[in-house]
Specification:
Number of helices of chain A: 8
Largest sheet of chain B: 4 strands, parallel
Shape of chain A: extended
Helix content of chain B: 55-70%
Helix content of chain A: 25-40%
Oligomer: heterodimer
Mean pLDDT of chain A: 80
Order of helices and strands of chain A: HEHEEEEHHEEHEEEHHEEEEH
Low-confidence stretches of chain B: none
Distance between the termini of chain B: 47 Å
Number of helices of chain B: 24
Structural class of chain B: mainly alpha
Strand content of chain A: 15-25%
Strand order of the largest sheet of chain B: 1-4-3-2
Largest interface: A-B, 66 and 67 residues
Radius of gyration of chain A: 31 Å
Distance between the termini of chain A: 111 Å
Strand order of the largest sheet of chain A: 3-1-14-5-11-10
Shape of chain B: elongated
Radius of gyration of chain B: 34 Å
Structural class of chain A: alpha+beta
Number of strands of chain B: 7
């Protein structure tokens, strides 16, 4: 009896569903996908802070400022998200991919997720000696792996091995940023910023930092020895060496939307020493689209290559019209040639 | 009585033997009734005159060096159209009465002196004849016999002899010994610096075959000695035409193109490394993973070149034979001149520049994927390398004129193999694959930017060469371009039907012949 009832119930559900579909069909209300060709736009804010954040007292000797641990490195700047087409300001730059006068579908300017990057200039992370200075085996196996020759000189400290060893880890970036909208701190998601394959397969889950940054010269950030390497996402992101001397690395994401005319206060710690080699540091906030970040090169290149194709074709046509060469011109065939000499 | 005298004359060992034999025979052959006459024709092989004609059209000079008598050699010359009715003949021979008298006397020194003087004079006369008829379309044929040749090849005379011989349309050396055959070949090779080819079928040709740059032996009636000591062995003389005009032409083009292409593809690859170094403070950091670089010339770009070098044909065999002046491309070394080689190298440098700078400019800072990830060393390496592999293989596809399934398989297969390799290599533990670990699967494949950028960059890189080719074939075509165009334009059905007609005719003729033979046999 019960089975029969269940069957009846199932059948009646099916019938209802079918009836619903037919109803939608006849009422012209089928669920549909409605594509709209709208331009995708990316908003990007680039803010160079390494000069600004040095107090006026130390402007002439930034190197001394950065090396002195006793000077507080806090710096607080305000960024206003303004809808300013193509206008450059001294403190911050707004670069737009598309300039929409007037009507916007919604008034949110920067849609979540907003990616936070730090950009370093003139920093050669692709130098051969730098790239070599790491030990992949040690990153996976920790103290069990003993051959640290590739990491010299950052391999041993006070006779003990350094985990993670090498120059790349030693020079870990250590500026921090926190964002406030008004009084509320905006939550910055610092998880999942590294590649998954790195987290899972290149950095050991049982490997903990040991004897790290213990020497006389501190190159960058310190690592929490209680967190395994596979969870130290900053380290993982930093250790994936960049390709070019100017690069960005992902710091985190803001999962909220930012509206136009919002004022964001950035509280940053200006720790990292880029002053000894005329590098510069920039903070970048950017949204992304299906194509990635702000990038007009691809579009411009496509257009210019296409235009040059058209131009060449046009020239070709002109020359052809002016100097037509009959197809299958027979003057160069052997029986029409003059006899060769010699 | 007549028989005794005749025998004596035959067995006499004096220089007058010929005259004695003639006199004795004369005494016997009196009051005879002529019954008939027989003649023996030593026929030339089938197709020889046409072959020599074609070779002459292809800009190849043909000399005949034979051991036959002068009359036979001249007849052969006429038979294979080396000598024509309208040609003037320059004959250099020591068969004059003065020399013969001196020989009878036996004074060797005097004979040599007189012979040398006579030869010098004759050569001078011949040259005079040549220079006086310069400008008019009269062509000359030089005929020289073995004895004279031995003097003409002496040190003081060889240059003027060669001078005379080069300016004649054809040269026939008769009564030559095997050593002289080799000496003449060496003289021509050394003094003109041209490539020489010797073809012969007997053991007496071996010296000549070995001396020439290319020796072709005809295997068959006179044994296998010639074939065994040659570079190429063919069965009949007329196959030489196909050997030279078809295979020689194809080989020249293939090798020239292959070498230029090798330079191009390695320069295109190597210079991207160099441009990367400008961005890596010249520290020596390679832009790619080591194994990418090792396999570049092994897997990703090697097979298409082999397909080019072994299979490529610019025009079909039938057209090569029809238009023998295609062969002149090789004679004048058009396809391997310095401008062409440097042009390919420049193309390589330009390609590398476009690839590298487009790639880096397009991805320089910002994220290249929806999830906000930025470019790093591994991804840039893969992007540039992908563009290089695509460009180099598509360049091959534009350059070759002959696509069989092999070429398609090699070219597109090499590109596909690059992606397959990335997947396979990236799946190995990161200890071994270091910077390639899952780079395609995780980072690049899901980024539409990567694919779009590859497309844009490959197209832009190929544009200069493509433009050059389009303009060159349209406004300054080379011989094979014209022939290809003509083949395309002319009604192909027409040509095919004409061919069919001739094939049909041949078939009918051969069937008829067979029938006649059968009826003869049955009788």
């Amino acid at each position: 009896m019960r089975d029969l009832f269940m069957d009846e119930f199932a059948v009646s559900l099916l019938v209802q569903e079918l009836g619903l579909i037919i109803y939608q069909f006849t009422q012209q209300n089928l669920p549909a996908c409605k594509p709209v060709l709208s331009p995708v736009w990316v908003v990007q804010i680039v803010y160079r802070y390494d000069v600004e954040c040095v107090p006026a007292l130390y402007r002439s000797n930034k190197l001394a400022y950065i090396k002195d641990n006793s000077i507080p490195k806090n710096c607080s700047k305000s960024l206003k998200i303004r809808w300013l087409p193509l206008e450059l300001k001294i403190c911050f730059q707004l670069v737009f991919m598309r300039d929409a006068h007037g009507f916007l579908a919604n008034s949110k300017l920067m849609k979540a997720p907003i990616y936070i990057y730090y950009q370093l200039d003139n920093y050669y992370q692709n130098h051969r000696r730098y790239v070599k200075s790491r030990s992949d085996r040690q990153l996976l196996h920790g103290l069990k792996h003993h051959d640290l020759s590739s990491c010299a000189p950052e391999d041993f400290n006070h006779g003990l091995p350094v985990v993670p060893c090498g120059l790349i880890a030693w020079s870990l970036f250590n500026d921090t940023y926190s964002f406030f909208r008004g009084i509320d701190e905006m939550k910055v998601n610092r998880k999942n910023i590294a590649w998954k394959s790195d987290r899972d397969h290149k950095f050991g889950k049982q490997v903990y930092p040991f004897n790290f940054q213990n020497g006389t010269l501190s190159g960058g950030a310190h690592l929490d020895p209680k967190i395994p390497l596979s969870d130290q996402e900053d380290l993982i992101v930093w250790m994936r060496t960049s390709a070019l001397p100017t690069f960005r690395k992902l710091y985190g994401r803001i999962e909220e939307d930012l509206d136009a005319d919002d004022i964001i206060t950035v509280k940053l710690l200006n720790n990292y020493n880029t002053y000894s080699f005329t590098g510069s540091k920039k903070l970048v906030l950017s949204t992304s689209s299906w194509l990635g970040g702000h990038n007009n090169f691809l579009g411009m290149a496509c257009i210019s290559v296409g235009v040059s194709f058209i131009f060449v074709a046009f020239v070709f046509m002109l020359i052809h019209v002016k100097n037509p060469r009959p197809y299958g011109d027979t003057t160069n065939l052997s029986w029409n040639w003059k006899p060769m000499s010699g | 009585m007549g028989e005794e005298e005749f025998l004596e004359a035959q067995t006499s060992v004096s220089s007058d033997r010929d005259a004695l034999v003639d006199a004795a025979a004369d005494k016997i052959e009196r009051d005879l009734i002529l019954l008939g006459a027989t003649a023996v024709e030593d026929k030339l092989q089938k197709g020889v005159p046409e072959c020599i004609d074609k070779l002459a059209n292809a800009g190849i000079k043909v000399w005949v060096i034979t051991g036959d008598k002068m009359e036979t050699a001249i007849n052969i010359g006429y038979a294979c159209s080396l000598l024509r009715e309208d040609m003037q003949q320059i004959v250099i021979t020591l068969d004059s009465p003065e020399i013969n008298d001196l020989e009878k006397k036996g004074d060797k020194e005097a004979v040599a002196k007189a012979s040398s003087a006579s030869i010098t004079n004759q050569i001078k006369e011949g040259k005079h004849q040549l220079s006086s008829s310069e400008g008019s379309s009269v062509s000359f044929g030089l005929i020289i016999d073995g004895k004279s040749l031995s003097f003409a090849l002496s040190e003081n005379l060889e240059n003027s002899f060669l001078d005379l011989a080069i300016n004649c349309a054809s040269v026939i050396c008769c009564r030559s010994t095997p050593k002289q055959k080799a000496l003449v070949t060496r003289l021509v090779k050394k003094c003109t610096g041209r490539t020489t080819l010797a073809i012969g079928d007997g053991a007496n040709d071996v010296g000549m075959l070995q001396e020439a740059d290319i020796g072709v032996g005809i295997s068959g009636v006179e044994g296998m000695q010639a074939a065994m000591s040659s570079d190429f062995a063919i069965a009949q003389f007329r196959f030489l035409e196909r050997l030279l005009l078809v295979h020689g032409h194809w080989c020249y083009r293939r090798i020239a193109l292959m070498i230029c292409y090798f330079f191009y593809k390695n320069i295109a690859f190597g210079f991207t490394l160099f441009w990367f170094e400008t961005h890596a403070s010249f520290s020596g950091q390679p832009a790619y993973n080591d194994w990418y670089m090792s396999f570049y010339n092994v897997f990703f770009t090697s097979l298409p070149v082999i397909a080019l070098g072994v299979f490529d044909q610019d025009v079909s065999a039938r057209l090569c034979l029809k238009y023998p002046m295609l062969y002149l491309e090789g004679v004048h070394d058009i396809l391997f001149s310095w401008p062409r080689i440097l042009g390919w190298m420049l193309n390589g440098i330009l390609s590398s520049m476009i690839i590298f700078f487009f790639t880096t400019s397009s991805v320089i800072h910002q994220a290249f994927r929806q999830d906000g990830q930025v470019l790093d060393f591994e991804v840039l390496g893969v992007m540039i390398y992908t563009c290089v592999v695509w460009t180099v293989n598509c360049q091959m596809a534009i350059s070759i004129n002959y696509f069989t399934w092999i070429q398609h398989f090699f070219i597109w297969g090499s590109i596909a193999f690059w992606y397959a390799f990335l997947v396979m290599y990236g799946a190995i533990s990161p200890i071994i694959s270091t910077t390639a670990y899952q780079v395609l699967v995780e980072a690049c494949a899901l980024s539409p930017f990567y694919w779009l950028a590859t497309l844009l960059i490959v197209v832009s890189t190929l544009l200069p060469y493509f433009m050059y080719r389009a303009f060159q074939t349209e406004f300054n075509p080379m011989i094979h371009d014209i022939i290809q165009r003509r083949r395309l334009e002319s009604s192909e059905e027409e040509e095919a039907s004409v061919e069919l007609f001739f094939q049909h005719k041949e078939k009918i003729a051969s069937v008829k012949k067979l029938r006649e033979q059968e009826t003869l046999l049955s009788k």
